[in-house]
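note to self — DONT lose this again. spent like an hour looking for the file last time. sequence + predicted structure for the chain T wanted, 136 res
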Amino acid sequence: MNEFKKFISKGNVVEMAVGLILATYFGVLIKSLVNDIIMPPIGMLLGGVDFSSLVFVIQPAVEAEGVSEIAIKYGVFINTIITFLIVSLAIFMVVKFYNKLKERVAKKEAVQEAAAPTPSKEEILLTEIRDLLKKR
């Protein structure tokens, strides 16, 4: 139980949970963007097609017998593909931005390290003398 407490109290787990929650709602947001904003104009340009209603019926519904329709919903699949492409593009752009930011920070740190003054020969010699005196 203590091991689990240590694991759950680490910052990485909390960050991962926050990331998962944000990713879930980001997916919902993108799905709404595709279904409610992008696909209606595309459908209108293609002759008033509603992609979510595009189906290939394998077996029609028979209400008298209580048999429901069996269909391949390829329009929903097209929406899902477009959603995937948008999410992939967004993730790519976030990772690209993160890598550039990380690169800038690394360059800034390298410049700061290079700008750090190196001690003169006298300072090095005095440091060595001080260390020798401390040992006595």
